């Protein structure tokens, strides 16, 4: 299969769908991004990287980062994590408050904001520096030592982070935070504000396609842990649209409100798409369209 020609075609077909979406504006620094940007990259387990459009352009990875946090915590802490966070789809928006109160401060899954705050809290306890640990991991796995936080986006998130602060305070009131709320939020905002390109993210995610083996061949996760992270990405990675994403794309995927989506093709590689205009669930419209077309064309889904 000519993968480069395929990506070129998909970009042409999917990019116009951005017109149906809207760039995230609840974080003001993200609202300034040009909605016509479009990038797609495919990194394969045999080391090749294909790309089209703005695939080398860094963007705000936002919640795509949460797939990597989950890997870091599971690798260190194993099953103990599941006492503090669930692994069921939430059926609610990623920043929803209501379910958290009903469920006594135990987030439904690690990918909604409340669950991601738990991952960061745990990684802080385990390493003393959640953001630093994640950044180092992403630099190593992507092969790009320049991966870093966009300070302007981080400041904008912090200034408008009332919902995240509410989630963190509520969990603290339930005894489900180990570190001070302000510290957890600071690491959360900076983590969401990491910037990476489609090529960086696709390379960094390869351990998920490679059954837990990192870029240098070392084992980062057991085969079973890699499977489990992919499973949670499939069921929870695109929030209250995870059912629709599974129906259309048929791959584990993790989205972010910067417009990125990382999708894993187990045993084959990782696709990353970036198009900043989002649907009402916070997923990139043209991104999902491109992934849908990719698996429909190639048959490379997990089903
Ligand atoms: N930083 C964003 C927030 O906290 C991340 C959400 C996302 O990408 N879905 O709301």
Topology at a glance:
Layout: H1 3-14, E1 22-23, H2 28-31, E2 39-44, E3 49-53, E4 59-60, H3 65-77, H4 98-102, H5 113-127, H6 130-142, E5 148-149, H7 151-159, H8 162-173, H9 181-192, E6 194-196, H10 198-204, H11 206-209, H12 223-236, H13 242-248, E7 253-255, E8 260-265, E9 269-274, E10 277-278, H14 285-298
Helix pairs in contact: 1-14, 3-5, 3-12, 5-9, 6-9, 6-10, 7-9, 8-9
Characterization of the model:
- With 303 residues, this protein is an alpha+beta fold.
- The chain has a single domain, classed as 3-Layer(aba) Sandwich (Beta-lactamase), CATH 3.40.710.
- It is built from 14 helices and 10 strands.
- It has helices spanning 3-14, 28-31, 65-77, 98-102, 113-127, 130-142, 151-159, 162-173, 181-192, 198-204, 206-209, 223-236, 242-248, 285-298, and strands at residues 22-23, 39-44, 49-53, 59-60, 148-149, 194-196, 253-255, 260-265, 269-274, 277-278.
- The strands form 3 sheets. The protein has a 5-stranded antiparallel sheet with strand order 3-2-9-8-7, sandwiched between helices.
- α5 (113-127) crosses α9, α6 (130-142) crosses α10 (198-204) and α8 crosses α9.
- It is globular, with a radius of gyration of 17 Å.
- The mean pLDDT is 97.
- The structure holds glutamine.
- Residues 62-63, 94-95, 113, 157, 164, 192, 256-257, 282 line the site of glutamine.
């Amino acid at each position: 299969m000519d993968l480069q020609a395929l990506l070129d075609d998909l970009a042409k077909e999917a990019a116009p769908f951005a017109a149906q979406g809207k760039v995230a504006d609840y974080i003001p620094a993200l609202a300034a991004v040009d909605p016509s940007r479009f990038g797609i990259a495919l990194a394969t387990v045999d080391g090749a990287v294909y790309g089209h459009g703005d695939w080398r352009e860094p963007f705000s990875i936002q919640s795509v980062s949460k797939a990597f946090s989950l890997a870091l915590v599971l690798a260190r802490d194993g099953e103990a994590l599941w006492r503090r966070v669930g692994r069921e789809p939430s059926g609610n928006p990623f920043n929803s408050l209501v379910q958290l109160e009903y469920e006594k401060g135990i987030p439904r899954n690690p990918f909604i904001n409340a669950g991601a705050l738990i991952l960061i809290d745990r990684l802080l306890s385990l390493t003393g520096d959640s953001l630093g640990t994640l950044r180092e991991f992403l630099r190593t796995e992507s092969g790009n030592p320049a991966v870093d936080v966009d300070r302007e986006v981080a400041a904008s998130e912090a200034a408008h982070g009332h919902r995240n602060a509410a989630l963190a305070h509520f969990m603290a009131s339930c005894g489900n935070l180990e570190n001070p709320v302000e510290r957890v939020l600071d690491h959360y905002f900076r983590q969401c504000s990491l910037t990476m390109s489609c090529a960086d993210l696709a390379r960094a995610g390869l351990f998920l396609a490679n059954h837990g083996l990192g870029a240098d061949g070392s084992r980062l996760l057991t085969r079973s842990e890699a499977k489990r992270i992919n499973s949670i990405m499939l069921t929870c990675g695109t929030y209250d649209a995870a059912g629709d994403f599974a129906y259309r794309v048929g791959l584990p995927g993790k989205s972010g409100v910067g417009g990125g989506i990382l999708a894993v093709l187990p045993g084959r590689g990782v696709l990353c798409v970036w198009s900043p205009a989002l649907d009402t669930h916070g997923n990139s419209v043209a991104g999902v369209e491109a992934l849908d077309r990719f698996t429909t064309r190639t048959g490379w889904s997990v089903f």
